[in-house]
Specification:
372 residues, alpha/beta, 434 Repressor (Amino-terminal Domain), Rossmann fold, seven-stranded mixed beta sheet, six-stranded parallel beta sheet, 45% helix, 16% strand
Length: 372
């Protein structure tokens, strides 16, 4: 007991200093301080902070100036709890190590942050069991809405797993009951193929079919590839359409090697991702095939690596910023109770011509595409 008493007495000077320091701090800015400076009620300040629409522009401007002057920081967590929300969105992607999905995730996080929302990210590796678990499991109940790019679940399964939770699907996974954001994959692959054909290539091959996935993206891209050949009066040979287990560089290299080992003549490659294209270019170089002199190559995605490859990679560039913005807006609208039919949101893409298909080393030619 005596030891405890001595400890407390020894600590008294520190406690006194702490009391003096905290008493000297200026008061924390609050709603009342803002209201007094703006000449309005506390309720009006609260309405501005919570983005209520029934505030005149002049009053809103006066309150926002006062907020900035006093340095008031709204308590976002408390605001969300009052609304019965967590302030969290879930983002479920197939692969986080994919450059395309990594870039898209960064854009979605940025757009959500601009609207005071936090994004929790997870990956599925295309496993339908994990996709379903993430859509309906305990983790999903922590978020107010989900943005999902499923590879393993069929359309009806996505909607069932999501239940009544606000959800937006990225890519070709629509069940007619959830919002979807995507590019026109048929048109994108057709544009890539037509570019190689107009540059004089006549014997084209496609790399990236994925019959093992429920995802329809590869199916739509091969459809666009075949449409372009048919329009040019050229037959398509199924032996020139190669499936891959994943969409990585190694798969592109293996597919190109398979084409060469078969002895099949080809002077152009349409690869369904940029990663596949970069792998194919490496394999062609290892076999002494020059790109684009012997074989022209084009990908889809416009990942950063393609801009610095040797040769620089021609590609179809999806408007990733628009995909992210539309996905965030759509899921937040559903969280706010938007009552409308499921939306099919199609964003644009561009043909970017670089060295791998015969473009100038110094050029970065862009051919815009119309939104479908």
């Amino acid at each position: 007991m005596q030891r405890c008493k001595r400890f407390w007495q020894a600590d008294r000077p520190a406690a006194a200093i702490l009391d003096r320091v905290t008493s000297d701090r200026p008061p924390t800015p609050n709603l009342r301080a803002v209201a007094e400076l703006a000449g309005v009620s506390v309720r009006t300040v609260s309405n501005v902070v919570n983005d209520y629409v029934h505030v005149t522009p002049a009053t809103r401007a006066a309150v926002e100036r006062a907020i900035a002057e006093v340095g008031y920081q709204p308590n976002l967590a408390a605001r969300q709890l009052r609304r019965g929300r967590t302030g969290l969105l879930g983002l479920v992607l197939p692969e986080l190590n994919s450059p395309y999905f990594a870039e898209l995730a960064a854009l979605i996080v940025r757009h959500a942050a601009d609207r005071d929302w936090t994004v929790l990210v997870d990956e599925t590796l295309g496993d339908p069991v994990r996709e379903a678990a993430l859509l309906r499991g305990s983790g999903a109940r922590l978020v107010d809405g989900l943005i999902v790019s499923p590879w393993g679940l069929a359309p009806a399964e996505v909607a069932v797993a999501a239940g009544a939770r606000p959800i937006v699907v990225l890519g070709e996974r629509s069940a007619g009951t959830v919002d979807r954001v995507a590019i026109d994959n048929v048109a994108a692959a057709r544009a890539a193929t037509e570019h190689l054909l107009t540059s004089g290539r006549q014997r084209l091959a496609a790399i990236g079919l994925q019959p093992h996935l429920a995802n329809d993206t590869a199916k739509l891209r091969i459809k666009g590839f075949r449409q372009a050949l048919r329009h040019a009066g050229l037959p398509h040979d199924r032996k020139h359409e190669l499936a891959t287990s994943t969409l990585h560089r190694a798969d592109g290299a293996a597919a190109a090697v398979k084409l060469m080992d078969r002895g099949q003549a080809f002077d152009g490659l349409v690869c369904f991702t940029d990663e596949l294209a970069l792998g194919a270019i490496r394999a062609l170089a290892d076999r002494g095939r020059r790109v684009p002199d012997d074989v022209a190559v084009i990908g889809i995605d416009d990942i950063e690596d393609g801009r610095y490859a040797i040769p620089r990679l021609s590609t179809i560039a999806p408007d990733k910023a628009a995909i992210a913005a539309q996905a965030v807006s759509a899921v937040l609208a559903r969280i706010d109770g938007a009552d409308r039919p499921a939306a099919e949101i199609v964003v644009g893409h561009q043909l970017i011509v670089r060295e791998s298909s015969g473009g100038s080393q110094l050029s970065n030619g862009r051919t815009p595409s119309a939104k479908a």
